[in-house]
Amino acid sequence: MFATGRWIAIAGTLGSVLFGWHQQAWWLAVPPACYLAYVVWRDKAIRSRIGSAAWASDGFARFLVVADVALVLRNAAGNVLVFLIAGLARQRLGLA
User: Among 37, 61, 33, 34, which residue's Cα sits nearest to residue 47?
Assistant: First the structure.
């Protein structure tokens, strides 16, 4: 997921800190939605490049989608942890 994926990951983590601090639970749906939209866009771009190539190329495209979805799940779980830590930090400081 190269450069665009990194920016989504950075924005998701920083957003999780910010919205976790303010305890806005709706944020937890935003990073996975952005990642999944990017995965679908990337898959369509790869499959358009493959065209009528051999079956092995289609298998590679499927492999990339599975790897990208695994990355989405890992980053979503990480964002939830960051969100919870930020919320707990605010409570511990007595600002909640």
Answer: 61
Rg (CA), the chain: 17
**Model confidence at 54, in pLDDT bands (50, 70, 90)?**
low
Pick from 43, 45, 39, 74: nearest CA to 61:
43
**How many angstroms separate the CA atoms of 62 and 75, rounded?**
20
The string of pLDDT tens digits covering residues 13-51 is 999 999 999 999 999 999 889 888 988 998 888 888 877
Structure tokens at 72: 């989405």
